[in-house]
From TrEMBL:
It comes from the Bacteria. The keyword Metal-binding does not apply. SUPFAM superfamilies: Winged helix' DNA-binding domain. This is HxlR family transcriptional regulator. It comes from Reticulibacter mediterranei. One of its GO terms (molecular function) is DNA binding. Keywords: DNA-binding, Transcription, Transcription regulation. InterPro entries: HTH_HxlR (IPR002577), WH-like_DNA-bd_sf (IPR036388), WH_DNA-bd_sf (IPR036390).
Length: 114
């Protein structure tokens, strides 16, 4: 089965999605960054259940795959701000739909804010 240029093969779509889902905290981070860009410490406070190392690793991973943008602000000390790329904003729409599904079919409470 071949796919047209407008319709990527199912395995390609799965690989792209799995790259995002492979980060344990991706949904939570994406949801927080959808609100507005955040500096590392701000994000760390909002996502208090995530260890510093896990947050760092997740942000690096999401940046690598083009979901999160890392901006270094030349201040003393250096400030780093994270925001969603267009790809990340678009993926967040899926996160919202999954949260709706969880409310309907899960235990009645959203797993992620938003």
């Amino acid at each position: 089965m071949t796919s047209s240029p407008q319709e990527p093969a199912a395995n390609t779509i799965s690989c792209e999605v799995m790259q995002i889902l492979s980060s344990k905290w991706a949904f939570l981070i994406i949801t927080f960054l959808d609100e507005r860009p955040l500096r590392f410490r701000q994000l760390q406070r909002k996502a208090a259940i995530i260890t510093t190392q896990s947050l760092t690793n997740s942000l690096r991973h999401l940046e690598q795959i083009g979901v999160v943008k890392r901006k270094v602000i030349p201040t003393v000390p250096i400030t780093v701000e994270y925001s969603l790329t267009e790809k990340g904003k678009d993926f967040h729409l899926s996160v919202k739909e999954m949260a709706k599904w969880e409310v309907k079919w899960g235990k009645g409470r959203p797993v992620y804010p938003g």
